[in-house]
Amino acid sequence: MRMSNKMRVILQVFVEGKDLDPVARAIAQIPSVTDVYEITGEADIFVIVETEDVITFRNILKDILTVEGIRSTVSSVVTYVHKHEGQTIG
Prior knowledge:
- The protein is an alpha+beta fold.
- Helix content is 23%, strand content 38%.
- The strands form two sheets. A four-stranded antiparallel β-sheet has the order 2-3-1-4, covered by helices on one side. It has a two-stranded antiparallel sheet with strand order 5-6.
- Strand 2 and strand 3 form a beta hairpin.
- It starts with 6 loop residues before the first strand and ends with a strand.
């Protein structure tokens, strides 16, 4: 299985208040966002972003941060994928 050459970022989103649905729906409308999950733990929403490069991601992150109700985010850039959708890579 061959993965895309796109940059993949895992974004943890921390939401103010308890109403996650409007925040999750707004984030899901952003074209480069491929997945949005409501999760348990410290963060409230888990987002996967696929983009061409770090500059483009910066602009996407600016869009995400304009969503009302977001308190903060933590971004992690994927450096290598070992397994994806049940398939071992490599």
